[in-house]
Structure formats: structure tokens, C-alpha cells
């Protein structure tokens, strides 16, 4: 059993590669829901949908989110009706939001709805939202506190970030199946997602980080930072705001109590040597996922590094 904690575009790209090298029944994805929002009266779960689209082979390559080949006629009409359109929703994507909102209105949980939607896409892996409770990533800026989507999408993450918090996290519980998946896993991978806004909300749900600390699985993280900069998005900005160095050392610090293996880019080989001297296993490879082959090769490399670490641990024992 392989468990992947994921969110954001980097996480979705990694999932696209992983699905080609691991049997779907062996994969469980624990997905960030801190970015969820209500849009046009509908409940939208961007990261859950991106993982579903990635597993179904329907994720838009050009955008990194949404459905490939989507149209935007509804968006154009809403603009003509003087409704907000800063959060771009495609027509096929909209159908999923309509269905999710309908099922939630019938009293079903976020987890049950995600499973039903995944099944309709023919997905045999488990896609688990991190919690059935509402947890919202909030970004504190000089202009006031913003939701993650307001900060990231509407304002193009141009505001300076003072801090990030996860509203509702302390009262939340892991979704059914989350802790069991972690306990049963042989390998756990933290995808190359933003450590603060994509993986952070998952780890903030009481019980999840503790389960990872107690897990006997090999836990690996793929760094979304290369050469002191984020591959994409505001990961570097948010890490700095939370007091973490914008480097692979900062990624390591974010996960220091749970991490066995760090996968870093070849361009961070020198920094990796310093981390290795502290006892952490660091494997350097190409982590830029431009092509389908890049994604598959990175997935294979991560799994091989985990197997190598697992074998070394058994030998030591």
C-alpha cells in the first residue's frame, strides 16, 4: 500500500506519473481540502478534483488544473450577467461541482461524495479528502486576511504574506479511512506540493501528523523548491512567512519529525550533501515534470529511493 499526501498543481503532476507505475488498487491519496470554496452557490474542491482528473487522464496539461479540452461558455455568460469570474470554472468542471453540491445537499459527507465522483470517472484508487470537517487556509496580508483562493487566484499572490493559518483545523477530525491508510502503508509520499498551503492543512488535522510519526512506513518528500526558489506558485513566499528557509533545508524542517527520505533536484546536489551529513537520506534527480516521461521517471525514482531506504532499515535491524 502506497499513500500519497497531495494538493496543488505539483501534486497533481506527480500523481499523473505515479498512476502509470503503480497498480491503482495499491494507491491511496490523502488530499488537501483547505483550498475548498463556495463559488456561484456550489461547493468546489479544487485539489480533490485535480487528483481525480489526473488519475482519469483528463487533467488539463496547459493549465495544470481543470479538465483538458474544457470550454468556458458558462463563465462568459456569468460575466455578461455581471457575476464574478475571477475563479475560472470550465463547463465540464462545472458539472462536477454541480454533482458534488447536489450530493452534499442530500446529506452525504465530503469523503463519500469524493468516492462517488471518483468511481464515476472509473478510478480504482482511493481518493480521501483529509477531513469531512471544514478546514480553511487563511492568509494574513497587510490588506487583511484572505482565503487561499482570494490570495492565490484573485490577487495572483502579489500581497506580502505575514502568516498562514488553518481555520477550523483544531476542531477537525481525519476523514474515515485516513488514519487506517497511514497505519497500513509500506510507503508514504509527500508530493511536490506547497509545504504550507497544500500539505500543511493535512498535517494540521489532529491525529494525522501523529499517525505519520508512529508509522513504520518509509516516508519520502519530493521538494517543490529548487535552488532557493519555488518551482511554481507561492510556496517560497509562504515558507518564508512561516519562518522556514526557502530551500531544501526548509522543506526538510517542515517535515523533520516524519521524514526518512528527501527527493531533491540535481541542481541542489551541494545543499543535499550538507543535509546528508545530518543523517537524512537525500536523493537527487530531475524533479521538473515537463513531459509525461518526466512524471513517470520521477515517480519511479521516488519509489526506488523508498525501497532502498526500507531495505537499509531492515538490514540495520
SSE blueprint and pairings:
Elements: E1 2-6, H1 8-18, E2 27-31, E3 37-39, E4 42-44, H2 46-55, H3 73-80, H4 91-105, H5 110-120, E5 126-129, E6 136-141, E7 144-147, H6 148-154, E8 163-167, H7 178-184, E9 187-190, H8 200-204, H9 208-214, E10 218-222, E11 225-226, E12 229-230, H10 235-241, H11 248-254, E13 261-265, H12 269-276, E14 281-285, H13 292-316
Parallel strand pairs: 1-2, 1-9, 2-5, 9-10, 10-13, 13-14
Antiparallel strand pairs: 3-4, 6-7, 6-8, 11-12
Span from first to last CA? 22 Å
Major sheet, described briefly? 7 strands, parallel
Low-pLDDT parts are: none
Helix and strand element order: EHEEEHHHHEEEHEHEHHEEEHHEHEH
Rg, Å, rounded? 19 Å
CATH H-level superfamily title: CofD-like domains
Apparent shape? globular
Task: Summarize the model shown.
Helix content is 40%, strand content 18%. The protein has 13 helices and 14 strands. The longest helix is centred in the last third of the chain and has 25 residues, at 292-316.
Name the descriptors:
about 325 residues; alpha/beta; Rossmann fold; seven-stranded parallel β-sheet; 13 helices; about 40% helix; about 20% strand
Could you characterize what this model shows?
This protein has a single domain, classed as 3-Layer(aba) Sandwich (Rossmann fold), CATH 3.40.50. The strands form four sheets. A seven-stranded parallel beta sheet has the order 5-2-1-9-10-13-14, sandwiched between helices. About 40% of the residues lie in helices and about 20% in strands. The longest helix has 25 residues. α7 runs parallel beside α9. The chain starts with a strand and ends with a helix. It contains 13 helices and 14 strands. By secondary structure, the chain is α/β, with parallel strands linked by helices. The radius of gyration is 19 Å and the shape is globular.
Amino acid at each position: 500500500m502506497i499513500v500519497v499526501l497531495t494538493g496543488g498543481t505539483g501534486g497533481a503532476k506527480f500523481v499523473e506519473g505515479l498512476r502509470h507505475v503503480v497498480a491503482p488498487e495499491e494507491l491511496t491519496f490523502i488530499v488537501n481540502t483547505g483550498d475548498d470554496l463556495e463559488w456561484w452557490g456550489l461547493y468546489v474542491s479544487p485539489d480533490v478534483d485535480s487528483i481525480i482528473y489526473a488519475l482519469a487522464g483528463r487533467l488539463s496539461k496547459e493549465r495544470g488544473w481543470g479538465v483538458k479540452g474544457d470550454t468556458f461558455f458558462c463563465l462568459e455568460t456569468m460575466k455578461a450577467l455581471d457575476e464574478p469570474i475571477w475563479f475560472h470554472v470550465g463547463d465540464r468542471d462545472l458539472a462536477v461541482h454541480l454533482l458534488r453540491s447536489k450530493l452534499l445537499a442530500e446529506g452525504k459527507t465530503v469523503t463519500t461524495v469524493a468516492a462517488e465522483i471518483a468511481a464515476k470517472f472509473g478510478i480504482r484508487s482511493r481518493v480521501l479528502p483529509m477531513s469531512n470537517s471544514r478546514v480553511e487556509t487563511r492568509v494574513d496580508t497587510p490588506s487583511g486576511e484572505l482565503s487561499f483562493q482570494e490570495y492565490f487566484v484573485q490577487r495572483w499572490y502579489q500581497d506580502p504574506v505575514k502568516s498562514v493559518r488553518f481555520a477550523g483545523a483544531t476542531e477537525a477530525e481525519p476523514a474515515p479511512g485516513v488514519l487506517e491508510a497511514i497505519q497500513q502503508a509500506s510507503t508514504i509520499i509527500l508530493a511536490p506540493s506547497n509545504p504550507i498551503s497544500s500539505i500543511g492543512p493535512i498535517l494540521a488535522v489532529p491525529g494525522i501528523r501523529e499517525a505519520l510519526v508512529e508509522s513504520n512506513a518509509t516516508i519520502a518528500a519530493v521538494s517543490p523548491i529548487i535552488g532557493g526558489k519555488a518551482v511554481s506558485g507561492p510556496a517560497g513566499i509562504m515558507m518564508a512567512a512561516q519562518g522556514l528557509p526557502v530551500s531544501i533545508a526548509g522543506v526538510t524542517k517542515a517535515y523533520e519529525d516524519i521524514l526518512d527520505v528527501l527527493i531533491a533536484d540535481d541542481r541542489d546536489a551541494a545543499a543535499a550533501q550538507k543535509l546528508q551529513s545530518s543523517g537524512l537520506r537525500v536523493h537527487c534527480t530531475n524533479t521538473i515534470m515537463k513531459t509525461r516521461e518526466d512524471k513517470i521517471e520521477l515517480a519511479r525514482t521516488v519509489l526506488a529511493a523508498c525501497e532502498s531506504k526500507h531495505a537499509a532499515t531492515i538490514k540495520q535491524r
